[in-house]
């Protein structure tokens, strides 16, 4: 492991961006070589005098830029092909700086909440008696009315629980932290899809838990592979995204959900189900995987994708009688979710605004999926028609890394399979976040550029080492 320690004195702005920028500069100036193993999150945080969370965000940003990669159990390394990624030709670098770079690598929702909607919500709250109580400390699991709204929203996503089993969290990532933080200890094994949400990998590093990827097929996680892992690895939990799976955008079949729940029950494996995209199902009656084994289910969602990400409100449903351990994790991380933004989310759940916003997002996602299929033509897609993102299987001789690099050189950011892979042999595909551009014209421009790349052959000068 290297003793790399950046000098941040010349960098302004958030510290996590300063660390990522410093790493990029050190690579470009050959102070850090390809293949270098970077310090652990805790080690670098201690040496820089920042929080572990800051380093985690910095490494995630560097990974998003294609500078580093990680393998579970081995650490974080500077990518072998990183020289090419930091030596963008000047004309294309000018295009990026001129604002022509279109980022499809981040799964942001298209903005839907507007000034008047937020102004009305704040005005309604302002006229209520005792509103200053929203600025006080409250119980870690949230105010009773906010928890009831959370139960209602979870019911909208087909997971029906009583309010006393709901914890209000500071977004979906915090809900995942609370769930895994309460049910695991350092060294525990957690199973997940072989391609999984990168935030889980960062959290696993933070909690010092071990991840193991399970093979997937066209219906979801392979039950035979899941049972084999349960028998041989004695995992503590199973994390999954069964609706609009990240990164593939697929939906687990109902039969597959039932089979996985039965196996989890057989071996006592707790389920941590991330359903931040569940609202995109619309009227389709597909129960969450946790509904088939509620005594094991730790089911969460947030309003970030469905209403507005700046609210930072999530809802975690836990098994009966388990509240105290989860409340302690919330206390240790944020003390409580912000009551003021939870009040806005509660109002929007109760008056139907939340459902209206969610439906508008779903309709927009469908329109963008259709646009992608029209422009990319015969490309092999693996995503639901309402997913925010799509997964495309690349034709030979393209690899996911070389395609992502070429796309970046042409002004489009996308995510290669290696960012999501828990195992060494990742499939040859890339994720496109279709809802990230502010309007469809920008998305269309990005998709046309990608279609042009698909018609070309990889540039041998940009082969992956």
TrEMBL record:
Pfam hit, one: Aminotran_1_2
Keyword set, alphabetical order: DNA-binding, Pyridoxal phosphate, Transcription, Transcription regulation
Top-rank lineage group of the source organism: Bacteria
Gene3D superfamilies: Aspartate Aminotransferase, domain 1, Type I PLP-dependent aspartate aminotransferase-like (Major domain), Winged helix-like DNA-binding domain superfamily/Winged helix DNA-binding domain
Limits of the HTH gntR-type domain: 13-81
Signal peptide residue numbers: none
Molecular-function GO term, any one: DNA binding
Similarity comment text for this entry: In the C-terminal section; belongs to the class-I pyridoxal-phosphate-dependent aminotransferase family.
Name of the protein in question: GntR family transcriptional regulator
Annotated source species: Dongia mobilis
């Amino acid at each position: 492991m290297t003793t790399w320690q950046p000098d941040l004195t010349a960098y302004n702005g958030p510290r996590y961006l300063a660390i990522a920028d410093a790493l990029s500069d050190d690579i470009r100036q050959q102070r850090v070589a390809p293949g270098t193993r970077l310090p652990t999150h805790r080690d670098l945080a201690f040496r820089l005098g920042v929080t572990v969370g800051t380093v985690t965000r910095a490494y995630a940003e560097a990974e998003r830029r294609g500078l580093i990669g990680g393998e579970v159990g081995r650490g974080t390394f500077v990518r072998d092909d990183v020289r090419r990624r930091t030596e963008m030709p000047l004309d294309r670098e000018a295009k990026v700086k001129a604002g022509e770079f279109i980022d499809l690598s981040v799964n942001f929702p298209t903005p839907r909440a507007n000034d008047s909607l937020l102004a009305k919500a704040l005005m309604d709250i302002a006229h209520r008696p005792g509103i200053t109580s929203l600025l006080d400390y409250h119980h870690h699991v949230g105010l009773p009315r906010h928890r009831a709204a959370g139960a209602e929203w979870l019911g909208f996503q087909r997971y029906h629980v009583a309010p006393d089993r709901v914890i209000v969290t500071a977004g979906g990532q915090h809900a995942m932290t609370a769930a895994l933080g309460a049910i695991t200890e350092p060294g525990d094994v957690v199973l997940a899809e072989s391609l999984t949400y990168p935030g889980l990998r960062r959290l696993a590093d933070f909690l010092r838990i071990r991840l193991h990827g399970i093979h997937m097929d066209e219906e979801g996680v392979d039950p035979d592979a899941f049972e084999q892992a349960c028998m041989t690895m004695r995992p503590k939990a199973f994390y999954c995204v069964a609706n609009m799976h990240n990164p593939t955008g697929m939906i687990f079949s109902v039969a597959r959900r039932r089979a996985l729940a039965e196996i989890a029950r057989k071996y006592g494996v707790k389920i941590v189900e991330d359903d931040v995209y569940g609202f995109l199902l619309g009227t389709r009656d597909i129960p969450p995987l946790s509904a088939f084994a509620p005594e094991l289910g730790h089911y969460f969602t947030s309003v970030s994708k469905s209403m507005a990400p700046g609210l930072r409100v999530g809802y975690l449903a836990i098994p009966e009688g388990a509240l105290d351990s989860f409340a302690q994790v919330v206390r240790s991380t944020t003390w409580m979710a912000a009551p003021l933004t939870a009040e806005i989310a509660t109002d929007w759940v109760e008056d139907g605004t939340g459902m209206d916003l969610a439906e508008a997002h779903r309709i927009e996602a469908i329109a963008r999926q259709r646009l992608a299929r029209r422009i990319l033509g015969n490309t092999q897609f693996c995503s639901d028609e309402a997913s925010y993102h799509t997964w495309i299987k690349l034709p030979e001789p393209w690899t996911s890394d070389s395609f992502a690099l070429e796309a970046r050189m042409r002004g489009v950011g996308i995510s290669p399979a290696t960012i999501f892979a828990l195992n060494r042999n990742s499939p040859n595909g890339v994720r496109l976040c279709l809802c990230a551009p502010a309007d469809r014209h920008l998305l269309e421009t990005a998709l046309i550029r990608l279609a042009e790349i698909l018609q070309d052959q990889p540039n041998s000068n940009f082969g992956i080492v």
